[in-house]
């Protein structure tokens, strides 16, 4: 857990899918519909969790070759029909966001979800007030784990490289992005790490839910009111 000499965060950048909201069911439905359309076998949930991390523009050309734009259109059509009805905050997240905002911490989201879908989901949940910037796939010149989307978040948060900013996510690509941008890598998910999953890009802390993140920042000296 946190040591006495650890600096508290000035700001926190969050991943979105399966960090703040449970999106696996919707992603799996849309992805398997796409795979079927393209003549591929469906993926089980374990494959889904291990293979879905990069943005669509970075992953689909490798999966579908010259037909990747056709696959993109199928995926987006399926996802658009499902995503709001499937949207579900993860445990402790609404309380965590409210408490962090009240404490004065600056918050943003950097996601590999299409930026339009991301902002639609945040608006649907009424969470716009918590975030300085919502950066999705294609909003910057390159997507996570590149540094470009994080730089957009930094600008909105009044932060810069060298400040103590956490990057909180559920996947190795998030920890890699933290390393590429000088952020503190924090793993937020209930599932334990798989063998070797974070060998190349380790995390500083692993926490299970929003309440645990609040406990951590409170230990580091951020004035978090009881909820």
Order of helical and strand elements: EHHHHHEHEHEHEEH
| Mean pLDDT score | 91
Number of helices: 9
State the low-pLDDT regions, or none: none
CATH topology of the largest domain: Rossmann fold
What is the first-to-last residue Cα distance?
21 Å
Strand content: 5-15%
Which term fits the overall shape?
globular
Descriptors:
single chain, 227 residues, alpha/beta, Rossmann fold, DNA polymerase, domain 1, six-stranded parallel beta sheet, 9 helices, 6 strands, globular
Structural write-up:
Helix 6 links the parallel strand 2 and strand 3. Strands 3-2-1-4-5-6 form a six-stranded parallel sheet, with helices on both faces. The two termini are 21 Å apart. It is globular. The chain is 44% helix and 14% strand. With 227 residues, it is of the alpha/beta class. It has two domains: 144 residues, Rossmann fold (3-Layer(aba) Sandwich), CATH 3.40.50.1000; 63 residues, DNA polymerase, domain 1.
Brief overview:
With about 230 residues, the chain is of the alpha/beta class. About 45% of the residues lie in helices and about 15% in strands. The protein is globular and about 55 Å long.
Topology of this protein?
Blueprint: E1 11-14, H1 24-37, H2 45-51, H3 56-64, H4 68-86, H5 93-103, E2 106-114, H6 115-125, E3 133-137, H7 148-157, E4 165-169, H8 172-181, E5 184-188, E6 205-207, H9 210-219
Parallel strand pairs: 1-2, 1-4, 2-3, 4-5, 5-6
């Amino acid at each position: 857990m946190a040591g006495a000499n650890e600096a508290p965060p000035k700001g926190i950048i969050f991943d979105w899918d399966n960090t703040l909201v449970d999106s696996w069911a919707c992603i799996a439905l849309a992805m398997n519909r796409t795979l079927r359309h393209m003549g591929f076998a469906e993926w089980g949930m374990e494959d889904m969790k291990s293979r879905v991390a990069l943005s669509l523009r970075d992953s689909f050309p490798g999966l579908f070759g010259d037909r990747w734009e056709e696959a993109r259109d199928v995926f987006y059509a399926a996802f658009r029909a499902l995503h709001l009805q499937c949207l579900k905050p993860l445990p402790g997240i609404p309380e965590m966001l409210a408490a962090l905002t009240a404490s004065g911490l600056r918050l943003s989201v950097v996601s590999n979800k299409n930026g339009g879908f991301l902002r639609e989901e945040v608006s649907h949940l009424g969470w716009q007030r918590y975030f300085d910037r919502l950066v999705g796939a294609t909003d910057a010149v390159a997507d996570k784990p590149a540094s470009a989307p994080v730089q957009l978040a930094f600008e909105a948060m009044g932060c810069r490289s060298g400040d103590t900013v956490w990057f909180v996510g559920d996947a190795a690509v998030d920890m890699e992005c933290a390393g590429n941008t000088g952020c503190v890598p924090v793993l937020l998910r209930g599932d334990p790490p798989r063998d070797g999953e974070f060998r190349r890009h380790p995390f500083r802390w692993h926490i299970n839910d929003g309440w645990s993140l609040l406990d951590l920042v409170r230990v580091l000296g951020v004035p978090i009111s009881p909820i």
